Sequence to fold (453 residues):
Amino acid sequence: TLAEKIFARHMVNEKGEQGVPYVKPGDTGFARADLRFSHEYVTPMASIFFEHFVGKDAPVNEPGSILFFRDHLTFLKYVMPPDRVAAGLLDAANELATRQAEFALKQGIRLHGEVESGGSEGICHSVMYQDYALPGQVIIGSDSHTPHSGALGCVAFGVGTTDVFNSWTTRDVRVTVPESVKIEIRGEKPAGVTAKDFMLAILAHPYVKEGKAIGKILEYTGDAVRALSVDERATMTNMAAEVGAFTGIVAPDGKTVDFLVAHRGMPRAEAERLCEGLSSDADARWSETLVFDAAGIGSMVALPGDPGNGKALSDLGDVPIEIAYGGSCTAGKCTDMDMYAAVCADAVRDGRKVAEGVTFWIQFGSQDVKRYCEEKGYLALFEEAGAKTIDPSCGACINAGPGVSTRRDQVTVSAINRNFPGRSGPGQMYLASPYTVAASAFAGKISEWRPAG
Fold:
């Protein structure tokens, strides 16, 4: 499989050199990571380990391939209850950022930090995908949604604090090569159906709901996947985390080359070279193959409590809402902004605004995405339609920023990845696509967007 080929290129052999002839599921060893990143929730503890076990003045291994992010707790002050602030918890949270910044400065590590508006430069795995990840790489990060970068054809997976610390000393991470599941989506998707709808359908599949994909690598393929933009593919690799998978990956192709040329300024020949040979063999062995018909997947929604509670939106009935939340790493990319903008433009043209009693939040995944919205005129459009924009940060997705619910009876429709109880406040959260979230904001209830024509 594609992932096995990438692991084989990165496994450390008996001589301590990188690369082995092949790997198979169950093989255990050390893989040399191309990039390692962590955020302010994990970096401080890892730095304590490093200074205690390696030495206060010891240098990290290749600081140029390590990245730090201040992105998880930047908006915590807006939602932390006063009694917890009084108890010193906000100060303790801010101290994590201070500790990370000090260690970054000491070690010469690039820190993507806060901006003047109070948000961050970008959500860690959003920026990794946007600015750093390359086809064929192995990337580890301190976040379960590290697989986001798998959309570019690399093996990217989340690790814990101990693995982060260990990787600073050797660049290596201990792995057992997982089995791979092929998820093939055939045919052509209907207009208005998105990668998020694909994922909610996948999460509702019995194989996934029964936990059989946990710990495995998901390779997304098929005509409908190849037709998606790279941003949309990132929605699918990102949500491998909700499957419980080890990671998600899409084989790079011409669209990947276009992405690297457009977003990184990379010469086309170099981008094409990086993608060469990165595909699964015709006779690759899969733990399981799941086949979906894109034409049979409509707009989906996941009922509160679990992303696997997916059902067709047409079967939902009337569900009034108070919050519509578009954004997060999963739905804060440029393509997602195009979706929110398309619905807002329809509403403005028809003289409609966000429904009374509803707050429509749109949060950018990175400052680059915000600049994209400025250039496209989306910021003015969002304001005219009655939506509120938020600077990048993990925010409401982890109950730490604007957009969280405040009452148990409050209903949210959200484009984030998880709707576990309490994940984004005490209310009831439904998951849906960016189109559905935006359409619901104007309808005042969970509603499907039907594109003109």
In short: Residues 89-107 form the longest helix (19 residues). The mean pLDDT is 95. The chain has 18 helices and 18 strands.
